[in-house]
Amino acid sequence: MTKFDFNDTWLFDGRDTVRLPHTAVELPFSYFDEKAYQRTFTYEKTFDADPSWAGHEVSVLFDGAMANAQVSLNGALLARHKDGYTPFEARLTGLMKPKGNRLTVVIDGSENPEIPPFGGAIDYLTYAGIYREVWLKLTAPVFIGMAKVETPDVLDALKTVSVFVSLANPQNLVLSGNLTATLRDPTGRALDSVSVPITGPTVTLGMAHLAGITLWDTKTPALYTMDLSLDTPHGTDNSTTRFGFRSVEFTPEGFRLNGQPLKIRGLNRHQSFPYAGYALGREAQERDAEILKHDLRVNLVRTSHYPQSTHFLNRCDELGLLVFEEIPGWQHIGGAAWKQESVENVRRMIRRDWNHPSIVIWGVRINESCDDHDFYAQTNAAAHLLDSTRPTGGVRYITDSELLEDVYTMNDFILGNEEHGGNRPRTPLRPQQEVTGLKHNVPYLITEFGGHMYPTKSHDQEQRQVEHVLRHLEVMNAMYGDPSISGSIGWCAFDYNTHKDFGSGDRICHHGVMDMFREPKFAAFAYASQGAPEEGVVLKPVTFWARGERNIGGVLPLIILTNCDEVELRYGNHKPKRVQPDRERFAHLPHPPVVVDHRHFTPDELGLWGMTWEHAEVTGLIGGKVVATARFVSDPIATTLQVQPDAETVGRHEAVRVMVRALDQVGNKLPFFPEPVALSVSGAGRLIGPGLVPLRAGSTGFWVRATGVGAIEVTVSSDRLGTKTLQLRAE
């Protein structure tokens, strides 16, 4: 099989020539009409049939289009696909003219109540467009359709691998020949090869007694490949599948990866970006996985609430980031046809993604929906039939819900209910048997907490930011302290645009521990600080360091998020304070925060605090040695315009994020510096979004999309802080 880039020169709605991925309507950052994209759009591409295609099967493969797509060639309908999140194909064989073929794709951005996730209200946007890549696929007339690789006995000394292959034979030709499978280790070295004769449309083969296999896990994500070569009288075909040797198990005593207990510490992710919606390509998707793994230090991400980009999943495979993947939906269950489409969504999701070792559980229930025995019996049966190696989960927020899945997956928002008329004291998590209504423990996973119970903007007052941090810490502490809980997945990683019925009135859900540009709020360091120091030292005082930022002034109690052994605080010329992590309040966290409060000061010292605001220095120590320092000035002044790209090179037609920050004398971000910056991009790139933007909480971000190969110049200007120019390169 050969795939060619088929993303250039599409005519959008008869007026603009665009390259895919593409969003049909580029929404503003906030305060927009989300109905702007809820209509039909047309994409057209004209192409000639290359003479070298003769004798091949030819099709166009769409990785994803939102939604309800219809594909025609020269006016003849070829394919329909309702689901906006999974790939589909349009077969061109025998239908093309030598010259001037017109491929037309009509997509409908309306929220069609016959298609999941629509029919009710949903708390996220489904941006219309052909928002993932499109490929021209060439194969032999008989070719490798789908291949599933399973590793059934990874805990044995000698390993086994099984391969299940479906052959595609659209012309109904006589089948004969051979299929050869070659197993390669992460270096590309061949470990074994097996060849079997073709006797029908499906082929099963296996390899046994494999020695020296490295298991895939979160620290050593070893990836193997299975090369398949098909040889029939009708030609040859080849494909490569990447996979890992690993086992997963959810038990009443917690989660096990490769037989070893592992507490899940995760966050939920929406795949949307400012202005571009869903339509950013491989490098931006990969960068999100890197942020989750390296910056936030989580070990699992939930793809709320739909299958996400294969680029994102591929990077999770490479990084050792576990994935909970689920079907599209949000609370609403439709009629009979809607349910059948949802069951089919389960099948599409699993068939697309069953070889990703990062995926450890399938979500086969509509997020936060009510019980529906017959419907969810079907979704579970579909999942188990296709994949016996992974458990199913069904995310709910109602208690005493019928358990049809393998894991009871629960959105527990009890923390915060006491503020909304609840009659129980502050409670991070409920005991699982109270939630399930069962008299015994079952495999149990918290799939959401926090989030909408305490939305926090990046520029909110410090006291709210402190409470935001505490809520994430308290739930994680409770999770770590309960062996019956497999883990917890916070809501959520990044702020996201949404409908008018949700969010903060500005069409933004400020539920993330990072903002929409992936800039961390303080709560991000509640997660990062739980990572081991050898992965990177974390030392983040939860303060803007301003005397009047809190309701009663000062900064006490001062929470310092850290994975250090102890912290030293110096305030002005006063005697320094050495403080240990608060293991009394947060006894179960891998790395409790340091909390500096009135207990650490004499009455005389407290009297000095706040009378004259002073500089401060916070030092982190491990084994008695200084490993990190944070400095604060008492008189911050806007001094530096920082312009920081994620990378100085970007792939052709890919996008790179650039962050802009206003910094003070010691390099701290100024959280209430609101002045605008002007953005411009020239050369082999273009700016996504507007050219004049305000700083929000002292920063803003933007993406630069490469438009070809060559130099890209990025200029950021501030009336007060001057101009910075970056030289990037598209390769």
Any chance you could write out the topology, listing elements then pairs?
Layout: E1 2-5, E2 10-12, E3 16-18, E4 40-47, E5 57-62, E6 69-73, E7 76-81, E8 88-91, E9 101-108, E10 134-139, E11 143-150, E12 159-168, E13 178-184, E14 190-197, E15 202-210, E16 224-232, E17 235-243, E18 248-251, E19 254-257, E20 260-261, E21 264-268, H1 282-295, E22 300-303, H2 310-319, E23 322-326, H3 336-353, E24 359-363, H4 373-386, E25 392-393, E26 408-411, H5 432-436, E27 444-448, H6 462-480, E28 487-490, E29 496-497, E30 508-509, H7 524-528, E31 539-541, E32 558-562, E33 566-571, E34 577-579, E35 594-596, H8 603-608, E36 616-622, E37 625-632, E38 640-645, E39 649-650, E40 655-663, E41 676-683, E42 685-688, E43 692-694, E44 699-706, E45 710-718, E46 722-730
Parallel strand pairs: 21-22, 21-28, 22-23, 23-24, 24-25, 26-27, 39-46
Antiparallel strand pairs: 1-10, 2-3, 2-4, 4-9, 5-8, 5-10, 6-7, 6-9, 11-12, 12-15, 13-14, 13-16, 16-17, 18-19, 19-20, 29-30, 31-32, 32-35, 33-34, 33-36, 36-37, 38-40, 40-44, 41-43, 41-45, 42-44, 45-46
